[in-house]
Write a structure and sequence with these properties.
By secondary structure, this protein is an alpha/beta fold. It folds into two domains: about 10-120 and about 240-305, 3-Layer(bba) Sandwich (FAD/NAD(P)-binding domain); about 125-235, FAD/NAD(P)-binding domain, CATH 3.50.50.60. It is about 20% helix and about 25% strand. The chain contains six helices and 17 strands. Strands 3-2-1-7-17 form a five-stranded parallel sheet, with helices on one face. The chain has a four-stranded parallel sheet with strand order 11-10-9-15, covered by helices on one side. A hairpin with a 5-residue loop joins strand 13 (about 215-220) and strand 14. Helix 1 runs parallel beside helix 2 (about 65-75). The protein is elongated and about 60 Å long. The two termini are about 20 Å apart. The protein binds flavin-adenine dinucleotide. The site of flavin-adenine dinucleotide has 35 residues, from helix 1, strand 2, helix 4 and helix 6.
């Protein structure tokens, strides 16, 4: 029998789909695994998605259902799940993870699967409006704007998916785009067929209007420099993501704040791996997130076996 050297041989930081799959797989390989998640919302970016697209599975599947399924399997495989935020990774001679309470954890290997967060608009009082008209989840909050006008900011897959959800219940959805839509053609065609969706091009939000809640937005046209206002009760910004890597040593990060790895998902620090949306070179969809999670778990287990 293998002696129990460490209660956490492999630590996984982040319980998005990458981290969940990494944890589940590492445990199935017989490793002692601890999974750290800073929020109670397992699944990360997909947790709020109404219907996951791109997964070759029968029927419709919400992001939350998928995440809870993998979490259950991970727990059954023996993964220890801690609701805790890792604030520092110190790869020194003894690998040390520090949590938000100052607790030190010493796994033998770590997989950074901390993903990314939706980017903020960067306008004044933005966070004050969160929950008062500003939302980053159409599935969760779309119902509050039934029969009202809403604005969606952005033109990628996420923005268009959210606009499609909002168009079911809102009176009018205004899409505010800096540039032409970058979303998949299939999504764009669905959006173009809807009569209650309109577009404002070449524009960005400069101000959120309202006192206690969102009443509208002020826009600036990037080409002409002119400003205009749009009245809306709801505002849904989806303008991309930024990596959750503030706790990772700067030496492991590339210019965009993403963790650099080789093709084996290994960083330049021994026994420190990265996968998913926190990693430079990640493909951007959940199938890749899940595959990278499994790949990083295997790489970490191989490193421990050496
Ligand atoms: C609106 C939207 C819709 C999308 N729809 C689809 C889709 O339909 N199909 C598809 O294939 N892809 C979709 N994507 C892309 C997909 O969601 C992501 O690429 C994928 O989920 C990334 O997974 P991840 O686990 O790497 O990162 P994340 O999902 O970001 O998960 C990271 C997790 O780590 C946690 N964490 C962060 N920092 C710490 C820390 N310091 N300590 C502990 N925990 C931490 C976070 O709380 C989070 O739970 C969508 C993305 C968006 C934004």
């Amino acid at each position: 029998m293998r002696p129990l050297k460490n209660l956490s041989e492999i630590a996984i930081i982040g319980a998005g789909l990458t981290g969940l799959c990494a944890a589940r797989h590492a445990a199935r390989l017989g490793r002692l695994v601890t999974l750290f998640e800073s929020t109670g919302l397992y699944g990360g970016l997909v947790a709020t998605i109404d219907e996951v697209d791109g997964l070759a599975a029968p029927g419709k599947l919400s992001g939350q259902a998928l995440a809870i399924h993998v979490l259950d399997e991970a727990r059954k495989a023996g993964v220890r799940v801690l609701e805790s935020t890792i604030v520092k990774v110190d790869p020194g001679p003894k690998l040390t993870l520090t949590d938000q309470h100052g607790g030190a954890h010493h796994p033998e290997a770590v997989v950074i699967a901390s993903g990314a967060s939706l980017r903020k608009l960067g306008v004044p009082r933005e966070e004050e409006f969160l929950g008062r008209g500003l939302s980053r989840c159409a599935t969760c909050d779309g119902g509050f704007f039934r029969g009202q006008d809403v604005a969606v900011v952005g033109g990628g897959d996420g923005a268009v998916q959210e606009a499609l959800i909002l168009a079911r219940t809102s009176r009018r959805v205004v899409m505010v785009c800096r540039s032409p839509l970058k979303a998949k053609r299939e999504y764009v065609e669905k959006l173009a067929a809807l009569e209650n969706v309109s577009f404002i091009w070449d524009s960005e939000v400069t101000e959120i209007l309202g006192e206690d809640g969102v009443r509208g937005i002020r826009l600036r046209n990037r080409k002409s420099g002119t400003s205009s206002t749009v009245e809306c009760a709801g505002l849904f910004p989806f303008i991309g993501v930024t990596a959750n890597t503030g706790f990772v040593p700067a030496s492991l990060l590339g210019a965009s704040g993403l963790v650099k790895t080789d093709s084996d998902l290994a960083t330049t620090c021994p026994r420190v791996f990265a996968a998913g949306a926190a990693r430079a070179g990640y493909g951007g969809n959940i199938v890749q997130a899940m595959a990278e999670g499994i790949g990083a778990a295997e790489a970490a287990a191989r490193a421990l076996a050496r």
